[in-house]
Amino acid sequence: MAQPRNTLRGLIAMTTSSQKQDLAWLLDSDPAIRWQVLRDLADAPEEQVAAERARVADEGWGARLLALQQADGKWPGGEPAFSSEEAAQWWRSMEPARQGTLFPEWTSIAWSLTLLREFGVEPGHPVVRQAVARVHENARWEHDGEPFFSGEVEPCINGRTVALGAYYGMDMTPVVTRLLGEQMADGGWNCEQEEPLDSAPGSGSSTGGGGRRAGGSTRGSFHTTIEVLEGLTEYDRAAGGGSVPEVAGVAEAVARGQQYMLQRRMMRRLSTGELIEKDRQTGAATTWTQFSHPTYWHYDLLRGLDHLRAAGVAPDQQVTEAVEIVRGKQDPQGRWPLENRHPGELHFPIDDGEGRPSRWNTLRALRVLKWYDAARRQKHWRAPKSHRRAPRPQPSDRISARASPQATRSRTARPSPPPTRAASPPPAPRRP
User: Using CA atoms, how far apart are residues 128 and 134, in angstroms rounded to an integer?
Assistant: First the structure.
């Protein structure tokens, strides 16, 4: 791929021999990766980072994904593969404007906009603004036909919607306010949590309150919490820059949500300290120590750590075990593999395939280690003995019971809506 050779060669020349090898491989890639390498690993001047980032919407993956968008705001994806005929009939029965917003995975509007955000397209670029305007004007959620940037009823989906809306300059105040009211007592969020009785479709309420429907979870979920944290952090960043209105309490809610993860050492039960081995949301064994990209709605250690880094959280002993698991997965060439490709289809490949070295995972792992090691050197702190230098995971130690496509799709099988909700078609698919 074309690169500003003089600039990149100069930056590589300023690094150590091992760093040169890592940077050269990472920079031999798409602008979507290169600008983040320049910013997060090479400490390049701001103008060089900005120049490389400006290329994302005009060439490579970013330009290709933008060009795939249709006039109605959707991306091509076809009919989702649901786990039951009943769910498929639900999909086929809805009006066309409500199709293609969350499903299919991973080519719908929500996931395509997410990928563009991960690429780092400039929100103010004319083509990006046109893409967002098409979504704003046309897209409706499958749940009850809500406008896309108004969100819907589940915290996990609304967290992602806030991240997208804030990134692309939309006023997400009502959805942010709702999320703040849905934070649970333990500091987390959960898509299966008890719902406010007056938040049902047709009730006229968008912020919750009142009584709560029994039967939902009363504990936070790592999957939902990371989705909401990324959304609120993006909103807080945008509000600080003046592009969206400020909402009181966002920073405090983010801090509580981050403590939810930190108190659990990113992967352990708060009550016993044991590893969380079963994923309550998929019903399968957890795959949190197997690193994916794109992560979609799934939590894993690398995603959680990269959030803390990007949010400016100072690392301490609470993340040591997780960081050392990340460190232990580096191969002799200094790279990290794509370990856990979630079932579903992308528009086009953005990595070399499962089991092969991944530039996305390597970029994220290296910047997490840089963040952690810099803090450790400055503070001169030592991790507790039980957390020092976690051994490199062996193949026999890794979680082998990965969720099959059928198991993952069953996560989307939504039960019939409760009586408090407006009448809707049978088993709408359950969102992550």
Answer: 10
Give the Å distances, CA to CA, from 21 to 9, 72, 398: 12, 44, 28
3-state secondary structure of 344: coil
| Residue 415 pLDDT level (bands cut at 50, 70, 90) | very low
Q: Which of 432, 332, 238 is nearest to 18 (CA)?
A: 332
* 420 contacts 200 by C-beta, under 8 angstroms: yes
pLDDT tens, residue by residue, 168-180: 999 999 999 999 9
Residue 70 CB: number of other CB atoms within 10 A? Answer: 11
> Is the previous residue joined to 104 through a cis bond, with omega within 30 degrees of 0?
yes
pTM for the model: 0.83
- Residue 369 pLDDT exceeds 70: yes
What contacts 43, CB < 8 A, 6 or more positions away? Answer: none
Determine how many CB atoms are found less than 10 A away from the CB of residue 263. 13
**Secondary structure letter of residue 355 according to DSSP:** T
Measure the CA–CA gap between 182 and 172, rounded to whole angstroms: 16
Q: Which two tokens stand for residue 373?
A: 């090691």
Token match 């930056």: residue?
Answer: 11
Q: Which residues contact 240 (CB under 8 A, 6 or more apart)?
A: none
Amino acid present at 370: K
Compute the distance between CA of residue 41 and CA of residue 19 in angstroms, rounded to an integer. 9
Residue 62 identity (one-letter amino acid)? G
Q: Is 75 within 8 Å of 68 (Cβ atoms)? A: yes
- Burial, 50: exposed, middle or buried (Cβ in 10 Å; 0-12, 13-18, 19+)? middle
Cα distance between residue 264 and residue 324, in whole Å: 16
Question: In whole angstroms, how far apart are CA 246 and each of 135, 166, 209, 238?
Answer: 24, 11, 21, 9
CB 61 within 8 A of CB 119: yes
196 forms beta bridges with 212
Residue type, 108: S
